[in-house]
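Late entry, evening session. Most of the bench is empty. Finally got around to the prediction I had been postponing all week. Sequence below, unchanged from the version circulated by S.P.
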Amino acid sequence: MLIEERTGIRYSDADAALIEDKVVSRADVAGFDSLLDYYYYLRYDPNSGAEFNELTDALVVNETYFFREVLGLEVAIEEVLKPAIEKRGRARAWSAACSTGEEPFSLAMMLAERGLLEHTEIVATDISRRALALAQSGRFRPRSVRTDVLPSAASGRLTLHDGRAQLAPLIQNAVDFRWLNLMDHEAIAKLGTFDLILCRNVLIYFSDQVVARLLTELSCALATGGALVVGTCESLLRYSTSLVCEERRGAFIYRSARND
């Protein structure tokens, strides 16, 4: 499937009807009566890039919310970012496949609460331009907040009004959002290295082959002593990687073992 080839995203047979509806809808909007013509256009026409991006936007899953799997973020800060800041005065964090931005903004709020935000560069990337535009707006849908009681890190930094969430300017400006396809080796390399990479609830959408290749890319993007954090339902133990799994307070991080 062309989508999997270019983005790494794999859809199950159970998703076939939904995917077909979305592809048919996009083909119609783009002015194609034939799905075969639409396919050939996307695959072979050098001017089809913008339309492929629109199709990708229609197909990707943007399911996220503030302070999701918050223990993983707490451990990442205390075990990875804080020590890096104490050692070098600065740290870098990358939220890969950040969707509409709730994850990197949650990280920013938690760092601000600890007085560490000004010492941390946060880069967030996604393949969906629509999701990135929503993230940069600083205003979020009601389902972005999944709890009646927000953690202390949100105090004065995230406010609820008329069913929507609004970020304080300090937090909104703390994240550097960029468009990026995780299948693009050169684009990942250009980001540089990071003390922390969050790639949570992303790998479940990829085939084992794609995951193995991506883990190699992410491992290379980790600074010495840096760590990768994946979702609680994801495990890297069945993949052959150079990363060392560490358990901290019930959360798992995958530490770089390089000695550059």
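Two things to note before I forget:
The chain has a mean pLDDT of 91.
Strands lie at 91-95, 120-126, 139-140, 158-161, 164-167, 175-179, 194-198, 222-229, 244-248, 251-255.
Will write this up properly tomorrow.
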